[in-house]
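Weekend entry, working from home. Most of the wet-lab plans are on hold until the incubator is repaired, so I used the time to fold the two sequences that have been sitting in the queue since the last round of cloning. Logging both here for the record. First:
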Amino acid sequence: MVETGRQRFVVHEHHATHLHWDFRLELDGVLKSWAVPKEPPTQPGVRRLAVEVEDHPLSYIDFQGVIPEGMYGAGTVKIWDKGVYILESRKPDKLVFELQGERMRGRYTLLRFTDKPQNWLLFKAKG
C-alpha cells in the first residue's frame, strides 16, 4: 500500500563513534531509519550502503544537538538535509520515492539485500 501525499524526511549527520548519516523517512507514524556510513548520494550512479536501524519517534525529525556520553548514539547530531518526499512504490524489499530536500532532490530507491535483510542500497535514479 502506498501512502498518499507528501511526508517528511530528514538526514542527520551523526558524529558518534564513527561519522555516519541517519536517513529517516516519515512512514507508518514513525521515522523509518537507516544508518548510512558514507555521505548520502546526491548524484545518479552513486550507491550507498544503508543499514536499517530501529524506528525513531516523529518528534526526532527536528532534533539537533549533543547526545551525552554514556547514552546510546552519544555524539553530535546536526540536520544535513530535510524536506518532504512522495512515496511512489512500497514493497517489502524496495521503496521508490521522490525527495524534495535542499541537497537530496529527485527520485531515489532503497533496495534490500537478500542475504542480509538489515542492509539496503540507497541510490538516486538517473534522469
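Second, folded right after the first finished:
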Amino acid sequence: MKYKRVLLKLSGEALAGEEKTGISALTVADIARQIKDAKNLGVEIAIVCGGGNLWRGKTGADMGMDRSSADYMGMLATVMNGLAVQNALEAIDVPTRVLSAIEMRQVAEPYIRRRAIRHLEKGRIVIFGAGTGSPFFTTDTTAALRAAEINADVILMAKNGVDGVYSADPKVDSSAIRFEEISYFDVLQKDLKIMDQTAITLCKDNNIDLCVFNMSEDGNIAKACNGDKIGTTITGGK
C-alpha cells in the first residue's frame, strides 16, 4: 500500500448523479460500494463532502443574503450529504462516524481531532461535516485542513467525469494537455483552477499530495487509494 491514511473529497454534485441537484440514492449507494472496496485494501479513509448539490454560499450572497448566513446554510448542506453517505456505508456494514464542526449532537459527533484519529485507527470511516465551522472557507480548504490535522498521506479529489488536471478547459480548448504530475508551485504559477488558493497553499505548506481523478470510472477510488497512476498527482516539489 502506498498510502496508509487518505482523505477523500467528494463534491456535492457527485452525490446528485444525473439529476445535478439533490441527492441520488442510487449514486450514493454506488459511491459507498466503491469506498468499501477501497477500505478493504486496508487503508484508513476520511471523507469531506461538498454541499453544492443542495446549496452554495455564493448563490445566497449573489441573491443579496448576508455572506456569513449563506455560508452557514452551505455548511448544513454538507452535513446532510455526510449523513446520506454514512447511511449508505452502514447499509453495507461499513462502520462510519460523522463529525461536525458545528455542534449538533442529535445528528453528529462534535469534531475533535483526537477523536477523529481514534475512529480511523479503529477501522471506522470518518466523514467531516459543516466545513471548517467558519464562513468564507470552501470545502476544498476544509479538505486540506482536515488532511493536515489527521496526518493524511494524500487528498483524493474525486471528480465527476473529469480525469485529471489540464493546461486549459478540455471542453473549450481541444489542444489542452493533461498533466500526469505537477507541483503546487506550477499550479499556483499557471493559475490552474483545481482548488481555491487557500487550500492549495495549505497542501503545499504541509507536503500533502493531491490526486485528481475521475470517480465515474468504476474502481477508481480503490485504485487511487492504492497509489495507482490514474488522473493527475500534485506534489510539493518544484
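Plan for Monday: verify the second prediction. DSSP finds nine helices and eleven strands in the chain.
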